[in-house]
Design brief:
The protein has one domain: Rossmann fold (3-Layer(aba) Sandwich), CATH 3.40.50. 40% of the residues lie in helices and 13% in strands. The protein has an 8-stranded mixed sheet with strand order 3-2-1-4-5-6-7-8, sandwiched between helices.
Length: 299
């Protein structure tokens, strides 16, 4: 089966699909025949992106609007997705951001942790029943090799005691990996897989609102970095390729499986992160969706 045939009739939701890697991912999947939906914060920008993403003679790209750093908007967005999409074959958790200055969301949470980790955690929970009903289905989460420098500081998850934008970003990207591995364990037997990836260092507007030291250092070398289209290749591969059908609980870079940071394989820490995350988004960690009870063997 070709990748094009594999995506025919399949529905994909790409979060943060109005620019950069997200838009390139949505464009690539639309070109492969998928019915594509994207999320964005601004309706005008999202609708303009949707028109650009739409494949020749393909169906219109659907748009869902919300600031995913705010939990009420994630819940509203999920309700609209469930009402509009009778099936969901792939969820690409792509949305993310970087800020050099500490910001607090409407929910009183540090913004990078809220957007980069808690938003995909909550959205996946809210959509998991639809994914299971559509199985075989896939959850693909965009992380970063910054996860290799990350540490989950359970005593200061929100950076209230000690703040560093880069440290907070690294932590959120490690959380993406640990979430994916725990999700994969909980979804065994459902027909839904969970994978996570490093897209490479990509030329985009990522972090441009408040660039940190790393972003400023990269700027002179932008022409040597990957294009958004190149950065999207691993996301597209994990969302569409028959080669990874049934593959779950793995980290990828350049469309190949890789080892992630050593702390990402700590199942006890992953379980603790899961339970803390569930509490922070107002979910019961033992009953939320179809994700199963907390595993007592990891405690």
């Amino acid at each position: 089966m070709t990748e094009n045939a594999a995506m025919t009739g399949r529905t994909v939701l790409v979060t943060g699909g109005t620019g950069g890697i997200g838009k390139a991912t949505a464009t690539g999947l639309a070109a492969l025949g998928a019915r594509v939906a994207i999320t964005g914060r601004d309706r005008g920008r999202a609708e303009a992106a949707a028109r650009e993403i739409r494949a020749h003679d393909g169906p219109p790209v659907e748009v869902f609007v919300g600031d995913m750093s705010a939990q009420a908007e994630v819940r509203q967005l999920a309700a609209e997705v469930l009402a509009a999409l009778p099936r969901l074959d792939v969820l690409v958790n792509n949305v993310g951001g970087f800020w050099g200055i500490r910001h607090v969301t409407a929910d009183g949470l540090e913004r990078m942790f809220a957007l980069n980790h808690l938003a995909p955690f909550l959205l996946t929970h809210l959509l998991i029943d639809r994914l299971v009903e559509s199985a075989p289905a896939r959850v693909v989460t965009v992380s970063s090799d910054a996860q290799r420098l990350g540490r989950i500081d359970f005593d200061d998850l929100q950076g209230e005691r000690k703040w560093s934008g880069q440290r907070a970003y690294n932590q959120s990207k490690l959380a993406n990996v640990m979430f994916t591995y725990e999700l994969a364990r909980r979804l065994r037997g459902t027909g839904v897989t969970a994978t996570v990836l490093h897209p490479g260092v990509v030329r985009s507007g990522f972090g441009a609102e408040e660039p940190g030291r790393i972003q400023r250092l990269i700027t002179p070398f932008m022409r040597f970095l990957k294009s958004p289209e190149q950065g999207a290749r691993t996301s597209i591969h994990l969302a569409s390729s028959p080669e990874v059908e049934g593959v779950t609980g793995q980290f990828f870079a350049d469309s190949k499986p890789r080892r992630s940071a050593k702390p990402s394989y700590d199942e006890a820490a992953a379980l603790r992160l899961w339970e803390v995350s569930a509490e922070l988004v107002g979910l019961d960690a033992t009953t939320a969706g179809r994700l199963g009870p907390a595993r007592k063997d990891a405690s």
